[in-house]
């Protein structure tokens, strides 16, 4: 266990997918708080996540990711009791050798990623409504003295546009795609600058963090996980990930989701698709070649065509709220 307390970030990343990585440290924390074995490792996110035998959750965060643990604690306390469905209730927190840990209660339901293949159109519409309303409530919450290391949104946006080629090349994209990304962001600069104002955004609404349960034979939202990537940004940034990972290619569902989230559309046509693509590419986790691998493999070679395929909300563009 002593080795993990002094592990470097590159070594941590290299070993992250090992199923028993961090187990000895997790057992030590569980013994401290009387949590029962066995522990089950869940490979997700950037921290080490374990489920205990009594359905509590333990998240271990190394010192080089400390900001994410601090964010999760701060945001969880700010949103408690203010949302239409639960987020993880924090039961205990602490630190071992510079590692932060959070013990939280189970959120009811099943991860959307485990049932997405069986969702009907009616289910998807219900999820679009529920998730949109969750976002509207989340975005309305204020967190005092909250700022990420990346700085205020205006600085983040400026860097994302100015350094687009460097950023997206470092994420494994080809020079051709990085150039197209940079050109798109530069073209949409004025529209992007008009987004906002910055609000509290979840930042990582992927299918693994969206929990569903059955209600009257259909699937509905039952909770949302993982607040570690929350930040202050325009609400539109939060919409991009669900629109890709849950409602990709379904223009009607994308429009319904946006309306429920309080992101007001106005008739404009193709401009919506390119703006949404630009917003998506501002996301801290935007790996273009992964996010749009299917479109690229299908033969699309222009970023505008990829945008139209992923965000086919023809007749819609964001309006200033």
Report on this structure.
This protein has helices at residues 2-5, 9-15, 23-33, 66-79, 112-115, 121-139, 153-162, 164-170, 175-187, 189-193, 235-245, 251-260, 271-282, 288-291, 293-297, 303-310; strands spanning 40-42, 48-51, 57-61, 90-96, 99-104, 110-111, 199-201, 210-215, 218-224, 231-233, 265-266, 317-318. The longest helix is centred in the middle third of the chain and has 19 residues, at 121-139. It is α+β, with helices and mostly antiparallel strands and 321 residues long. Helix 11 (235-245) packs across helix 13. Helices cover 45% and strands 16% of the residues. It has 16 helices and twelve strands. The strands form four sheets. Strands 1-2-3-5-4 form a five-stranded antiparallel beta sheet, with helices on both faces. The protein has two domains: 2-104, Phosphorylase Kinase, domain 1 (2-Layer Sandwich), CATH 3.30.200.20; 110-318, Aminoglycoside 3'-phosphotransferase, Chain: A, domain 2, CATH 3.90.1200.
